[in-house]
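This follows on from our talk about sequence and fold. Go ahead and set the record down below:
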Amino acid sequence: MKSAVYPGTFDPMTYGHLDVIIRASKIFDHVTVAVTDTLTKSPMFDLEERINLILPNVADYPNVSVESFSGLVVDFAVKKNAHALIRGLRAVSDFDYEFQMAQMNRLLAEGIETIFLMPNEKYFFTSSTLVKQVSLYADRDTGLVPPNVYEALMRETNGGQNI
């Protein structure tokens, strides 16, 4: 059984993330969405909230699970007996960082490949950071996040009333 790990902060999950998850689920027998517990990025949502925002959006994909992890993602992938790490690429600017990360992961765990997947072109510019910034200043549904994520953003940011 070929399995993959798709790691990230997912703060919050966007349709770009979901698109990559769905693409990966068609390639691999099992995909683990690995939500990092790192606090270095000062996430808006705590770990449990981020996981709970993802779960209903992957419920229709029986070969997708969601788990948290801490430490190095490559160590988590080894623990899960994964064959690959999935990384999303939106633009050329992502490639340099992702290339360095892939090379380091290869050094640390030679048997785990890094697979780059691009989301649908309508999500190329989407990032969790941009989605959060818009929600801080406007109660505007951009269509870039699932409805449950949009509702959570509006609760967290008071629907753009934080001006």
The mean pLDDT is 90. The longest helix spans residues 92-108.
